[in-house]
Write a structure and sequence with these properties.
The complex is a heterodimer of chains A (about 150) and B (about 120).
Chain A (H helix, E strand, L loop, with lengths): L1 E9 L3 H14 L6 H22 L7 E9 L2 E8 L7 H4 L16 H8 L2 E7 L3 E9 L1 H7 L1
Antiparallel strand pairs in A: 1-2, 2-3, 3-5, 4-5
Chain B lengths: L2 E8 L2 E10 L1 H17 L4 E12 L1 H16 L4 E4 L3 H9 L7 E3 L2 H7 L5
Helix pairs in contact in B: 1-2
The chains are: A alpha+beta (about 150), B alpha/beta (about 120).
């Protein structure tokens, strides 16, 4: 069975916690482990923070979009902004790389996302925005599928 | 849920106890408070107690790294204790344990920093 949700919210940092709690509540329906839930929350936090700080340069009047689909024990997560985009995606995905060192960023956002999800695809058009599409198979359903 | 932080000073060690969720939204205020306390007090080392920390992401790592650099300038050491498995994974992933020492609990960590109990 396929189950889908979509949410859009203002690009303010207060909504980082709203976003991860919302996605976690949705994913909870298919019985993830506590570790999986923490991983998904962390990933949502990283991607939404990227959209707010980098995509929208901390401007509060934009929108961040999340869609999440549950299908056959797999979580598909898409986090999208219509911000400035990323010029060099490979550079942005390097561990410890940050375009804003003055903000005391660790540069670990994408590295954490890649570690916690099975697949990560970043699509970005400078001036138009960035979409991060990710999937993760949950363990409690892995054996059933094979 | 948010973040709450308490600071205590024992001899030349600043103890920072964090509870709740540390993300980008909470990071700035924590950074300001933490920096001010380090600036105003004669401390050398930092002990970070994460016993009650329920969530942390890369923004939190950034704050810790930033304070680590300041501790280094003071000629001190940063020690973290009572860390949960998910936060430990984040620290491992980012190589933070190469520069920040991990101890089991606050009492033991303080002892290693030369504070008598």
């Amino acid at each position: 069975m396929k189950n889908e949700m979509a949410v859009a919210f203002s690009s303010i940092s207060e909504n980082e916690s709203f976003a991860r709690v919302t996605v976690a509540a949705f994913v909870s329906q298919v019985d993830p482990t506590m570790d999986e839930l923490t991983e998904i929350k962390t990933v949502v936090s990283e991607a939404v923070t990227n959209s707010i700080i980098h995509g929208y340069n901390n401007e509060p009047h934009h929108q961040v979009y999340i869609t999440c689909t549950l299908i056959d024990g797999e979580v598909e997560l898409t986090i999208k902004d219509e911000g400035i985009g990323i010029n060099d995606i490979n550079e942005a995905r390097q561990p410890l790389y940050t375009s804003k060192p003055e903000l005391e960023r660790s540069g670990m956002g994408f590295t954490i996302i890649e570690n916690f999800m099975d697949t990560v695809e970043v699509i970005s058009n400078p001036g138009k925005g960035t979409t991060v599409h990710m999937t993760k198979q949950l363990t409690n359903t892995k054996t059933v599928c094979s | 849920m948010g973040l709450s932080s308490t600071f205590a000073i024992k001899e030349e060690v600043l103890i920072v106890r964090l509870s709740g969720e540390l993300d980008h939204h909470e990071a700035e205020q924590l950074r300001n408070e933490w920096k001010e306390i380090m600036y105003k007090n004669d401390v050398k080392h930092v002990l970070l107690n994460l016993e009650a920390m329920t969530f942390m992401d890369s923004s939190g790592l950034g704050v810790v790294l930033g304070r680590y650099k300041e501790v280094l300038q003071l000629g001190g050491e940063m020690v973290v204790c009572s860390i949960s498995p998910p936060v430990k994974r984040l620290f491992e992933m980012s190589g933070l344990f190469k520069i920040v020492r991990l101890e089991e609990n606050e009492e033991f960590a303080l002892e290693t920093l030369g504070v008598a109990s």
